[in-house]
Amino acid sequence: MTADPPLVLDVDGTLTRLEGWGLDPRVFDPLREWEAPVVIATGKAFPYPVALCQFVGVPELVVAENGGVVYTGDDVFFTADPEAARAVVEDYRAAGYEPGWGAEDTVNRWRETEVAINLEQPVEPLREIAAEHGLEVVDTGYAYHVKDTAPNKGDGVETIAEHVGFDLAETVAVGDSVNDVSTFEVAGRSFAVANADAAATEAADEVLEEGHADGTLTALERVRGSR
Ligand SMILES: O=C(O)COP(=O)(O)O
Ligand SMILES: [Mg+2]
Q1: Is 4 a catalytic residue?
Q2: Closest ligand 1 atom to the C-alpha of 176?
Q3: Name one GO cellular component term (predicted).
Q4: Which CATH number is 82-147's, of 3.40.50, 3.90.1070, 2.40.50, 2.30.110?
Q5: Residue nearest to atom 5 of ligand 1 (CA)
Q6: Catalytic-labelled residue, pool 4, 10, 148, 214
Q7: In this structure, which CATH number among 3.40.50.720, 3.40.50.1370, 3.40.50.1000, 3.40.50.970 belongs to the domain 7-78+152-223?
């Protein structure tokens, strides 16, 4: 008998259209029909992956904010303190810069542990200020994330696997950037899409020829029923 392996999927760069933005709707049915847990592991704020799970119609298994927020379907865990990240933004503003998402800032509005800065904003002063507060800046290719060095997506995936009761050794991870390296490390098999950055490409077991959702769909095709 064969079965589908559990999945860990990144969002931006991985479930997106080839242009880089907007989810590719071709991934919705395979995810809904997948016969094993599907974990959405993203740098985005908590409500985004929860909404994705609801709209696709899969159980809410979510790692948000690069591991800062973990939802097992029953319990939410916060693994980082937001105060330092907020202080970094205050200092960044005081130095004359802005997060860069407009006045209402729906990118950070519901964040609970880290802060994201628009890639169009200057990163050097951000890195300096973050370092002064003991934080790191992670460039996902979609935003600069100011975060505690400790939490990562992989730890969040471990928490969910333990709670839901699936085997990480049988799990397949797909991602595109440095914030996915930790999921590649905990999953038994990992794929980087063609548009992946150097860190993700290096860390992945396999690098796909196709980018974005095309790559992810190829990976799903390859691993479906492989357990
Ligand atoms: O929020 C980002 O910058 C990237 O999000 P992702 O982890 O889903 O790719
Ligand atoms: Mg990504």
Answers
A1: no
A2: 9
A3: cytosol
A4: 3.90.1070
A5: 43
A6: 10
A7: 3.40.50.1000
What mean pLDDT comes out for the span 205-218? Answer: 98
Binding site membership of 10 for ligand 1 (Cβ less than 6 Å)? yes
What is the pLDDT of the chain when averaged over all its residues? 97
pLDDT at 1: 52
> Residue 57: how many CB atoms within 10 A of its CB?
11
**Region 173-189: what's the mean pLDDT?**
98
- Residue 56's alpha-carbon distances to 12, 134, 141, 165, in angstroms, are 16, 38, 25, 22
Closest ligand to Cα 193: 2
- In the chain, CATH 3.40.50.1000 covers 7-78+152-223
Centre of ligand 2 to C-alpha 167, Å, is: 23
Tell how far the Cα of 195 is from the centroid of ligand 1, in angstroms: 14
Query: Is 42 touching ligand 1 by the criterion CB < 6 Å?
Result: yes
3-state secondary structure string, 8-54? EECCCCCCECCCCCCECHHHHHHHHHCCCCEEEECCCCCHHHHHHHH
- At 28-81, the pLDDT tens digits run 999 999 999 999 999 999 999 999 999 999 999 999 999 999 999 999 999 998
